[in-house]
Amino acid sequence: MNSQFSIDAELLELLVCPDCRSRLALAYESAELMCTNGTCALIYPVLNGVPVLLTDEARKA
């Protein structure tokens, strides 16, 4: 687990996938945010504690 990776719980409640608008979940092991929509399933990187919510930067699960 990446000890440097954390996102405020209130912020996480507000974040949604820019592609499908589903909620995002934390993936502590890989320091990423995952779309909870199984059809979309995009994974967004978090760089230096900042979520990069660009679909061009996301990868498929």
What does this structure look like?
- By secondary structure, the protein is mainly beta.
- It has a single domain (9-60), classed as N-terminal domain of TfIIb, CATH 2.20.25.
- The chain contains 1 helix and 5 strands; from the N terminus they run αβββββ.
- Strands 1, 2, 3, 4 and 5 form a 5-stranded antiparallel beta sheet that branches.
- β2 (32-35) and β3 form a beta hairpin.
- The chain starts with 8 loop residues before the first helix and ends with a strand.
Map the helices and strands:
Layout: H1 9-14, E1 24-27, E2 32-35, E3 42-47, E4 50-51, E5 59-60
Antiparallel strand pairs: 1-2, 2-3, 3-4, 3-5
The 3D shape can be described as: globular
Kindly state the mean pLDDT as a whole number?
A: 89
Number of strands: 5
Regarding CATH, which class? Mainly Beta
Number of helices: 1
- The ordered string of helix (H) and strand (E) elements is HEEEEE
- State the helicity in percent bands: under 10%
Main beta sheet, described? 5 strands, antiparallel
Query: Roughly how many Å is the radius of gyration?
Result: 11 Å
Q: Could you name the CATH topology?
A: N-terminal domain of TfIIb
Secondary-structure content class: mainly beta
Counting structural domains, the number is 1
